[in-house]
């Protein structure tokens, strides 16, 4: 696209903020092939060096009462990246299905667009949004789900964590940005807190 590093970073952040996924803006405004983008970007990430299995996290999934809940993963990545991450984390067998951005469709939906959540319910065979429980590390995504009537929503917020957000490195908790429980959205800083805020969905 002929952009220098700063220009590319700014454009990434602009589209991430506008659409929830930078690639959504790149495909819409710059005719970027999402499948080619996935192969050259997500497909080349050394994920095995970046993430590792967490026995405590796996135990959290194992302790869910599967007579009360079905577990699906909702991601703004493509299916190959999503399955690769779940496999490395040793969680693939704990997930019933994956709702992903379908890069084969140039007009794919992504969080926080309503169509993405509607597609998720359709794929999971759920007609009543009140039956949906949703956890996400993006406040925008959680608020969008709640506005669509999803029953229980939690914003997972790791204060102090350094993370890339829209192509820019950000330390969560700086500049006064914090998570707060409001409007039916529960704020958690550790996934283990789900045992306390939603105790009815756990068998142990």
TrEMBL record:
Single annotated GO MF: nucleotidase activity
Coiled-coil zones: none
Superkingdom field: Eukaryota
GO biological process: nucleotide catabolic process; pyrimidine nucleobase metabolic process
Stored Pfam families: Hydrolase (PF00702)
Protein name: Pyrimidine 5-nucleotidase
Organism in which the protein naturally occurs: Pisolithus microcarpus 441
């Amino acid at each position: 696209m002929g952009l220098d590093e700063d220009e590319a970073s700014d454009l990434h952040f602009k589209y991430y903020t506008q659409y929830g996924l930078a690639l959504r803006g790149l495909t819409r405004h710059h005719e970027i092939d999402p499948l080619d983008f996935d192969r050259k970007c997500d497909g080349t990430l050394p994920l095995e060096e970046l993430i590792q299995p967490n026995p405590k996290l796996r135990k959290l999934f194992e302790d869910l009462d599967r007579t009360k809940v079905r577990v699906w993963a909702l991601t703004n990545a493509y299916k190959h990246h999503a399955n690769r991450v779940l496999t490395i984390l040793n969680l693939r067998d704990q997930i019933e299905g994956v709702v992903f951005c379908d890069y084969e469709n140039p007009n794919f939906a992504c969080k926080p667009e309503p169509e993405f959540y509607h597609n998720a319910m359709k794929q999971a065979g759920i007609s009543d949004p009140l039956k949906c429980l949703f956890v996400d590390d993006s406040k925008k995504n959680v608020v969008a789900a709640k506005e669509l009537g999803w029953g229980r929503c939690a914003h997972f917020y790791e204060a102090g964590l350094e993370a890339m957000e829209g192509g820019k490195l950000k330390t969560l908790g700086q500049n006064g940005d914090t998570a707060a429980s409001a409007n039916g959205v529960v704020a958690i800083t550790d996934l283990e807190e789900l045992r306390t805020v939603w105790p009815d969905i756990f068998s142990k």
